[in-house]
Amino acid sequence: MQDFPAMIVRGDAKNPTMAVERLSLDALPAGDVVVEVEWSSLNYKDALATRAHPGVVRSLPHVPGIDAAGRVVHSDSGEYKAGDAVIVTGHGLGAPSWGGWSRYIRVPAEWVVAMPEGLDARRAMIFGTAGFTAAQCVAAIDKHGILPDAGDVVVTGATGGVGSIAVALLAKLGYRVVAVTGKPDQAEALRALGAAEVVGREAVHDESGASLLKSRWAAAVDTVGGEPLATIVRATQHRGCVACCGLVAGEDLPLTVHPFILRGVTLAGIDSAKCPRGPRLDIWDRLAGPWRVDLPASMVAECGLEELPKRVETILEGEVVGRTLVRLG
């Protein structure tokens, strides 16, 4: 097999660099399945990987990319054969193992998911880890027994990858969605996704110190953490459910136990990387079938490997809207 392009992060944690280089298959990590990647995506964790963030990257050199979709070219596993269309997300892909910003990846067979009917590589990467996480959040709300007539569901970070797909998915399932964003110019786009109401970040920011706030939300998908998450939990209705999957607004959670012991609020933590295989397959089947949603073209960007450095700066500055796909094919 000839050499192939990949985005490589080199240097050290204080001064990392990134550039497209040529690799041979021998350079890839050990694994059972070799996949020719057609599409990957850009996520905030990938951007951190380009900065050699110690919570994401253990050593350099490193290939970022927590998402990949393509076709098997070689398999030592009886579960997959050459030509099979597959998805790889989570586990260690891109963090800490080498990831999908490479024309070829080699991974353990248990990381691989057969492409569900109804998806192809590009559509699967429009979802990627972001859509997979959003669907897990919605599944937590659904499992908690919160029906659409229970009241409003708030989504923070609504223009981001997780948030935008969560808005579209909740709206598809009949919930009244309140989208929170710091980008007022994206209000119409959020309404097009299905948001019934678009509000600014101040709607989920309360520093009064009150242990409980007036009940407002039946449920929530929080992608930012910190003070907004604490505000939402304090304003969640009796027996409501808050699905939490991010920390861009902070990792501290200034709360008392009152929302949990007086209102019975559930705070459901969502982890995507280590999601067990059974639930993982179920979520992908839902996204390919009854939960399939389409983002408008304005919220799906594409780029090649060479364009990634500029795109990384954009996502680190908080300016990305929707999803950014990385074209490898």
Task: Indicate the topology.
Blueprint: E1 4-10, E2 17-23, E3 33-42, H1 44-50, E4 67-75, E5 85-89, E6 104-107, E7 112-114, H2 121-143, E8 153-155, H3 161-172, E9 177-180, H4 187-193, E10 197-199, E11 217-222, H5 226-234, E12 236-244, H6 258-262, E13 266-269, H7 277-288, E14 300-303, H8 308-316, E15 323-327
Parallel strand pairs: 8-9, 8-11, 9-10, 11-12, 12-13, 14-15
Antiparallel strand pairs: 1-2, 3-4, 3-6, 3-15, 4-5, 5-7
Task: Give a short summary of the structure.
It comes from Pirellulimonas nuda. With 329 residues, the chain is an alpha/beta fold.
Protein traits:
alpha/beta; globular; 15 strands; 329 residues; Rossmann fold; 8 helices; Quinone Oxidoreductase, Chain A, domain 1; six-stranded parallel sheet
Explain this structure.
The structure is a single chain. Helix content is about 25%, strand content about 25%. The chain has about 325 residues and is α/β, with parallel strands linked by helices. The protein has two domains: about 140 residues, Medium-chain alcohol dehydrogenases, catalytic domain (Quinone Oxidoreductase, Chain A, domain 1); about 140 residues, NAD(P)-binding Rossmann-like Domain (Rossmann fold, 3-Layer(aba) Sandwich).
Q: Tell me which CATH architecture of the largest domain applies here.
A: Alpha-Beta Complex
- Secondary structure tally: strands: 15
Number of continuous helical runs: 8
Name the quaternary structure: single chain
Mean pLDDT: 97
- The amount of helix comes to 25-40%
Q: How many structural domains in the coordinates? A: 2
Q: Tell me, what's the shape? A: globular
| Elements, N to C (H/E) | EEEHEEEEHEHEHEEHEHEHEHE
* CATH level 1 name of the largest domain: Alpha Beta
